[in-house]
Amino acid sequence: GKCSRVYMGFRNVRGEREGYGVMRGQDGTIYTGQWMASRRGGHGTLFFDGGVFEGQWARGSAEGKGIVHHRNGDIFQGHYKSNKKNGPGVYCWADGAEEAGDYVDGQKHGWHKWRFGQEEWELLYSHGTVIKASLAEGGTSSGSPASETPAVREESLPKKK
């Protein structure tokens, strides 16, 4: 069923959400944390369908450092700008694989390091697309063909409703 928005928390003299508060959104998300001028601002935690985001907010958007724990066990830790991954970040899959590198506008960009056990790759991205992949110095491959480079692994994303 359709949830209505419910807010419990502090308000300023103008009646805007300000200070600490908890809000359940119409999409079923729950935000608990700081508010400024009725928008998420400061430190806060957002519970969404596939997991939990905890981090910095500004003008209603994820802005600055943040960490996402996905229900499937994956974890992303990095920087955000206007709700998108932006800047350095590390993505860890539940099975132990890990990828570190920069993001631009929510997409992987530039060199990333991917590691799983003894296997280590260096991946070059252009706006989310791998354009070069090579075994890292000292890394060993399980003999997988190039089509199976770790780059094909998808990162979990909060589902947009």
Protein described:
Helix content is 0%, strand content 60%. The protein is mainly beta and 161 residues long. It folds into two domains: 1-61, no CATH class; 72-154, no CATH class. A twelve-stranded antiparallel sheet has the order 1-2-3-4-5-6-7-8-9-10-11-12, with no helix packed on it. Strand 8 and strand 9 (98-104) form a beta hairpin. The protein is elongated and about 60 Å long. The two termini are 14 Å apart.
Briefly say what this structure is.
The chain is mainly beta and 161 residues long. 0% of the residues lie in helices and 60% in strands. A hairpin with a 5-residue loop joins β8 (84-92) and β9 (98-104).
Helices and strands in order:
Blueprint: E1 6-11, E2 17-24, E3 30-36, E4 39-48, E5 51-58, E6 61-70, E7 75-81, E8 84-92, E9 98-104, E10 107-116, E11 119-126, E12 129-135
Antiparallel strand pairs: 1-2, 2-3, 3-4, 4-5, 5-6, 6-7, 7-8, 8-9, 9-10, 10-11, 11-12
- How many individual domains? 2
Give the helices and strands as they follow along the chain. EEEEEEEEEEEE
Overall mean confidence score, pLDDT: 88
The unreliable regions are: 143-148
